[in-house]
Amino acid sequence: MRSLMWTVLIATAVGASLPADAQTRRGGGGEVPPPGVRTDPSQDRAALEARFRERFRSVVRERLNATDDQINKLLAVEQRLGARKFDLIRRERDVRLNLRKEMAKKAGADESLIAQLIDQSIQLQKQRVELLESEQRELSAFLSPNQRAMHMGLQEQLRRQMEDARERREAGNDGTRRPRRPGGNAPQAQRPGSPR
Question: How many whole angstroms separate alpha carbon 140 and alpha carbon 98?
Fold first, then answer.
């Protein structure tokens, strides 16, 4: 399930640049069942994975100028390492949140717990570097250095989008919202002498 989750997350991140019509042509669309009609969850999951896998192929082919053989090998690596990546991202996020929560207590913070969380954070970062090195060794067998660098950029884009989604979800849970100007734009500083 986690390998599927990683495939979907990557496809979502790298597929964001595809036009809507291209996504439909390449499997990004799909018929929506009528209201009240129940579908088989296993079939839905398989269809979702197939659509996002095709979107992944399209964007990787475009951005990395990759061949079909390279894309197939890249997908195999992503599926094999995806569960570990997803688990590391989740664990690092949990450690950061717990550390932030404990430090917010200020004078009442548990120093031993903070030290433990720092150690956990360091260990997780080491694991992430080891996983990155392992992944790069595998990718170097069929991708050029330039293609590997572009792939790393796509992964960083994915990580940022995951963090943004988490922050939006947390902001929605606690009822806070960032102030925005009419029309959806972020608030801008007023110029001196401008009316308030």
Answer: 37
b (16+ CB within 10 A) / e for 161-196: ebeeeeeeeeeeeeeeeeeeeeeeeeeeeeeeeeee
Neighbours of 79 (CB within 10 A): 14
Which residues 6+ apart lie within 8 Å of 85 measured at CB?
6, 131
| Chain centre distance of CA 67 | 24
Per-residue pLDDT for 13 more than 50? no
Measured distance CA(19)–CA(36) in Å, rounded: 30
For residue range 81-133, list pLDDT tens digits in order: 988 988 998 899 999 999 999 999 989 999 999 999 999 999 999 999 999 99
Among the listed residues 157, 164, 159, the one whose alpha carbon sits nearest the alpha carbon of residue 15: 157
Residue 30, SS3 per DSSP: coil
- Token code pair at residue 25: 């042509």
Helical ranges in 65-175 per DSSP H: 68-103, 111-139, 145-173
Whole-angstrom CA distances from 180 to 109, 140, 168, 183, 187 are 34, 45, 14, 8, 5
CA angle, 159 then 119 then 78, to 5°: 30
